[in-house]
Amino acid sequence: MDKIKSSNDINSDIYYDSVGIRKKVFVDEQNVPTEIEIDKDEDKCTYFVLYSNQQAVATARFQVTSDNGIHIQRVAVLKSFRHQHLGSDLLKYIIDYAQKQNFDYIILGAQDHAQAFYTQLGFKVIGEQYKEAGILHHDMKLSL
């Protein structure tokens, strides 16, 4: 049974579970330096973790923007749990959450290899390609 929990407390188990997933995916798999992955915005975000049979397997965070949107960041699914639709389940949950909170849009920086994943959820590419932590990205936006 899958369950999604959220928290904006960086001393919570949810936050620690989120960071654990992020370190495995971004630091260990993608070689993102820890000092880039764990950033100055940690205490400004709301964290979401999807638990499968009580194991933390997927995560994302968001920050509220100054113009009534949210900026989703750090979307990650543990390698052995990919291709089970858990990432899309998590993003759909956050999209629904954002709609219920009356946000106007969602923006995110998608790694180029993941653009099709976000497109299936309704996001559209905006802006030019850029490199972050040595990985090619495009910003993508979903109007709510």
From TrEMBL:
GO molecular function: acyltransferase activity, transferring groups other than amino-acyl groups
Any Pfam family the entry gives: Acetyltransf_10
Gene3D superfamilies per record: 3.40.630.30
Keyword Transferase applies: yes
PROSITE patterns (UniProt xref): GNAT
Acyltransferase recorded as keyword: yes
Domain spans labelled N-acetyltransferase: 2-144
Keywords from the UniProt entry: Acyltransferase, Transferase
Protein name per Swiss-Prot or TrEMBL: GNAT family N-acetyltransferase
